[in-house]
Write a structure and sequence with these properties.
This protein is mostly helical. The chain has two domains: 477 residues, no CATH class; 53 residues. It has 18 helices and two strands. Helix 4 runs parallel beside helix 8, helix 5 packs antiparallel against helix 6 and helix 8 runs antiparallel to helix 11. The termini are far apart.
């Protein structure tokens, strides 16, 4: 019996971690409804998140993990059933999401809306869905998780905005993500047509480009678009979790793309699109008035670097950029009070993004294939802009409340929330996955470091590099990039109104006459003779 338990328990660790997060979220909701005066909601939330974090660390003892749910019926319709797997590339994503959940709750102790058990339950649920996404082992599983995340995001965003224009923008973003789901299903269909149902541990080459475009479309990289640039009501806690979990659920797909699928005429075009996203996002992040206003550009810039790593057949580099997006970004976006020494400690995130030897992103520029060398200087420039923007936001002068003005018990809890994100960044540079203990492409990392130092020197001397003034910041619909997409959407609506007008005309009282007229004209065209 003990032997049987030993065989069953390790794969169940994936489900155990997810259930810990979901059960804690459910407990918070039940307590909010049944016992609104209960004073220990925060301790319940932190306890559940801490246990989930510990359980992810325990995955290392049994890696790789694989868990398949019972087959769906009928078998003729469902060739595969949901399954999950954790290996040395998906585990860093799982650890980063568990760390984000714990850090969000610890740093919530100093926020103005404390206590807010519903927001905490939402963050825990999102991280649980994110864990399912990064461990999904086939398209069916990932599609289900993506759909759940997209619906959660749609409902949350629609409740947080006012006005038809903002709501329309959110619906457009939802449609774009839905198109990414369609492309992932097409990849599965192509794989099945080739005679082998697809799983992410052995992705067939025919499906590689579909996976790449599906992930790039959901990330806003292929093509470049910014669905959510204004998030005034979704700020530190739930807003940060929503943005980072959503990005992570798509980034993990890039690590499963086989290098053999990238020998395509479309690869150079995709590389150019990734470069445009990285440079544009890095520039806007560098000049953002604050880190929350620049958060959408942070995501799109690092996603561009991750897509470039995928195009070079570098799965560990892709994972490195994705995990850095969550851990370094999470530490910066969750920092909500002013403390000089803690702001300086945040600069560990700059080391994480540097690609220097033994850093988390040391594998970021490995495997420089032919044709990429010409684009590498531009990607390094984008990387330097990301690092400089991170340094500026971390050392920002701020009018926020000081940590010293907070209650005594929060002075140890809040730094622990930021510290756990920084600690995991350092640990992953040395241990636990395929990108650990890497020297990397030291020439590229040194060049990026020199560019970073050059930008830091130039920023106070050249006004164009300074952040835009707060009252100049316009919502995304007024930017040039977004104006292009608004024009395309306006063209789509014009054709929609034209189609509706024609439909109303044909279905009205004169519809029969118009139908007869079109029929006569059609017959006349068919019977027309040449002279």
């Amino acid at each position: 019996m003990l032997l049987k338990t030993d065989k069953i328990l390790p794969p169940m660790l994936i489900i155990i971690t997810t259930l810990l997060l979901l059960a804690t979220a459910l407990a918070l909701v039940i307590l909010r409804i049944t016992r609104p005066e209960f004073r220990f909601n925060w301790l319940v939330a932190v306890g559940g998140a801490f246990l989930a974090w510990i359980s992810v660390l325990l995955w290392q003892a049994q890696m790789p993990l694989s868990l398949a749910l019972p087959s769906w019926q009928p078998a003729s319709l469902f060739s595969e059933s949901p399954s999950f797997a954790a290996d040395r590339l998906s585990w860093p994503y799982a650890l980063s999401l568990a760390t984000l959940a714990l850090a969000t709750l610890l740093t919530a102790s100093v926020r103005a809306d404390f206590p807010n058990s519903i927001s905490w339950a939402g963050s825990l649920t999102l991280c649980a869905l994110g864990l399912l996404a990064v461990t999904a082992n086939n398209p069916l599983t990932l599609v289900l998780v993506w759909a759940a995340l997209d619906l959660t995001e749609l409902i949350t965003m629609l409740r947080s905005v006012n006005g038809s224009q903002s709501s329309e923008r959110i619906v457009i973003a939802f449609s774009t993500r839905a198109l990414g789901i369609v492309l992932l299903l097409l990849a599965d269909i192509v794989s099945v047509a080739a005679g082998k149902p697809m799983d992410f541990l052995s992705t067939p080459p025919q499906a590689g480009l579909f996976l790449l475009v599906a992930a790039g479309l959901r990330l806003g990289v292929l093509p470049l678009h910014l669905p959510y640039a204004s998030e005034s009501s979704l700020r530190r806690g739930l807003g940060t979790t929503l943005r980072l979990v959503s990005a992570t659920s798509s980034l993990v797909l890039l690590a499963h793309i086989p290098a053999s699928s990238l020998a395509s005429p479309l690869t150079p075009l995709l590389l150019i699109l990734a470069l445009a996203s990285a440079v544009y996002g890095g520039w806007m992040w560098l000049r953002a008035p604050d880190e929350l206003a620049g958060r959408p550009f942070w995501v799109i810039a690092i996603a561009g670097l991750a897509v470039a790593s995928a195009l070079r057949g570098n799965p560990s580099g892709t994972t490195a950029w994705g995990v850095a997006l969550v851990l370094a970004g999470g530490a910066l976006f969750l920092a909500s009070v002013q403390q000089t020494w803690l702001n300086r400690v945040l600069l560990i995130g700059a080391w994480t993004l540097s690609t220097l030897p033994l850093s988390l992103t040391a594998s970021g520029w490995e495997n420089n294939v032919g044709g990429f060398v010409l684009a590498l200087p531009f990607f390094l420039t984008a990387q330097a802009m990301i690092i400089v923007g991170f340094i500026r936001h971390a050392l920002r002068p701020s009018t926020r409340p000081s940590l010293d003005s907070q209650p005594t018990w929060t002075k140890g809890v809040y730094p622990a929330g930021i510290g756990v994100l920084l600690f995991v960044q350092l640990v992953l540079g040395f241990w636990g996955w395929d990108g650990a203990l890497r020297i990397g492409a030291w020439g590229a990392s040194v060049a990026a470091s020199l560019l970073t130092l050059g930008l830091l020197w130039a920023m106070p001397r050249f006004p164009v590099l300074n952040p835009v003034r707060a009252h100049w910041v316009q919502p995304a619909p007024n930017s040039r990039l977004d104006q292009l997409y608004q024009n395309l959407w306006g063209l789509y609506r014009f054709f929609g109104r034209l189609s509706q007008t024609i439909s109303n005309t044909l279905e009205g009282e004169s519809g029969i006459m118009w139908t007869l007229l079109f029929l006569v004209l059609f017959v006349a065209l068919l019977t027309q003779r040449k002279p």
